Amino acid sequence: MKRSERLVGMTNFFLENPRKLFSLPYFVKTYDAAKSSISEDIDIIDDMFRKMGIGHLDTVSGASGGVYYTPDYSEKNSNEAIEEMISILEDEKRVLPGGYVYMSDLLGDPKYVRLIGKIFASAFQDVPIDYIVTVATKGIPLAYAVAEVLNVPVVIIRRDPKVTEGSTVSINYVSGSSRKIQTMVLAKRSIQEGSNVLIVDDFMKAGGTIQGMTSLMQEFNVTVSGIGVLAEAEDEDEDRKIEDYVSLLKFVEVDERTKHIQVKKGNYFNSK
């Protein structure tokens, strides 16, 4: 196999298997190449990943060592993606009755969902994560996008129990927007005790729903390693229940009368 062919194959392999360790002999056997050639290929791919701002290859020495791909979306790439989403969301046609903003098309566009997944994965790349947790329904595509980059499974909390999921654990929580008592449930076999989870959601106002998810995770004896929200509302009443989180966007103003929407960057860059 030519080096150019091997580089294409190995690059695709690393992108498809992030955060998973593979030994050098594995690549030697797979591509029928000398160990020295494989090592040179890894250096070339690592250099290109860094130049593109999409991550890097890390090597582990020793008998049980090898190489693995760490996704890391650069600050430049993240800034460009967030700026593009801001320009889309500030369209006055997105204002809905009640002062809401239409975002479903953004959450349904694979391009932006993938970008959001890469940015969140970069924000939490150094945090131990065994599961991505979200609540049905709008946070589901974001959770899967982050999970794909971090190479971990998704756990979906539901409002109502499903007979196909077996016995469940349920809690009541106060919704941050409606101030109503609501219920969320999760199958007992969904998460292993002692795991680390990353909570992902599409929008946060007061944080009641995320607080509910956090409380539910306590029932499973797991650790919430991080919280990521795509967009948050400006905290005007200082009644936010969640303090430690990462947001990509912040809605500063949504005026139903004038149809004016002002969006700015969230606290993501503050955490970098």
From TrEMBL:
SUPFAM superfamilies reported for this sequence: PRTase-like, Winged helix' DNA-binding domain
CDD domains: PRTases_typeI
GO biological process, one term: negative regulation of purine nucleobase metabolic process
Domain Bacterial purine repressor N-terminal: 2-71
Single GO molecular function: DNA binding
Matches recorded under InterPro entries: PRTase-like, PRTase_dom, Pur/Pyrimidine_PRTase, PuR_N, PurR_Bsub, WH-like_DNA-bd_sf, WH_DNA-bd_sf
Domain Phosphoribosyltransferase residues, every copy: 109-249
Entry keyword annotation includes DNA-binding: yes
Keyword terms of this UniProt record: DNA-binding, Transcription, Transcription regulation
Pfam families xref list: Pribosyltran, PuR_N
PANTHER family in the record: HYPOXANTHINE/GUANINE PHOSPHORIBOSYLTRANSFERASE, PUR OPERON REPRESSOR
Assembly and oligomerization: Homodimer.
Entry similarity comment: Belongs to the purine/pyrimidine phosphoribosyltransferase family. PurR subfamily.
UniProt protein name: Pur operon repressor
Lineage, uppermost ranks: Bacteria, Bacillati, Bacillota, Bacilli, Bacillales
